[in-house]
Amino acid sequence: MTAEGVPIWDRFPSHQRLCVNFTLTCNIACDHCIVESSPRRRERLSTDEVRATLSEAWENGRRHVTFSGGEVFLYPREMREVITWARELGYVVDVESNAFWARSDELAREKLTPFVEAGISGLALSADIYHMKYFPVERPITAARTARSFGLATEIQFCRSHHRERDEEIIAALAAAGEPYVVLELLDRGRAREMLQVWRGHRVEELSECDDLTTTLHATGDVYACCQLDIGVDQMKRTPVFLGSIRSADSDAAARDRREQLVRAFYDPESPIYFRTMVRQHPLFQPLDEESFSNICTFCMRALSDPARVAALEELLHAAPTAAS
Ligand code: SF4
Ligand code: SF4
């Protein structure tokens, strides 16, 4: 949270935010990890790729970047380079970490110092049963306390499990330390998919809004219109949420922009192609009203993996300004 109590992601509107999943290597392998990071994963961006993406995104109006992974504290030299570059461009920079390094106040200061000197503004951390399988909740608490002593905004993210007692213990430890936390929804993707075989379905009218439209560069060089990646299967790549790869020779920035605009419009209540309007009114989308979805992202993959539906959205979006003029 910021000093004003605002979640650190919400300091900037989504169209100004960029997320860079720098690496898939992580020192641990949480059961719920949506990007399926682990010590065995090797995918990583080069610092040149990150610099180029930061520059292009700055030109396109992005002003805030979060470096995530995997675990970025495994790569302090590379992080220092890209954070410095981002700051020189003018970005506000946050990093996400599992805080494995915060074994004591002294060690936490030592590990955080290079990031602070490079110019980060915020640190997002995790405390839940999935992370605390590997180390105690005191680590994220120590990391958050140390980060605030440097003047950083901090945020501890908590994800519920079906082990209610253990969840309550972690929440009690956070409360005893005076650490606020935000609750995240467990998504049925990545490794969490296996845990969520049984799930109450929701009709479209019951689904939440999509509030994770942050352009995200993944460690493989792929770019997505949101940060809730679903990359263990191909489905996301069959939707316009997948924007292409920075490693592709025929990478087309204009095509990427068009796809991203379409996804943003699909989740914008003011747009003519807002998803609830489409499900109420358009014959290609109306059948979705008969189905159940575990959450908005499951609906998203189902709705947008049909090329006919995407073509209809493109046509309507393209027609909208003319109709209004
Ligand atoms: S959830 Fe975070 S800490 Fe856990 S394996 Fe994934 S990247 Fe690593
Ligand atoms: S609803 Fe779609 S665009 Fe939004 S976060 Fe979920 S998968 Fe991403």
Automatic annotation (TrEMBL):
Radical SAM core domain boundaries: 12-222
SUPFAM superfamilies: Radical SAM enzymes
Keyword tRNA-binding annotated: no
UniProt superkingdom: Bacteria
Keywords assigned: Iron, Iron-sulfur, Metal-binding, S-adenosyl-L-methionine
UniProt-recorded Gene Ontology molecular function terms: catalytic activity; iron-sulfur cluster binding; metal ion binding
Protein name per the record: Radical SAM family protein
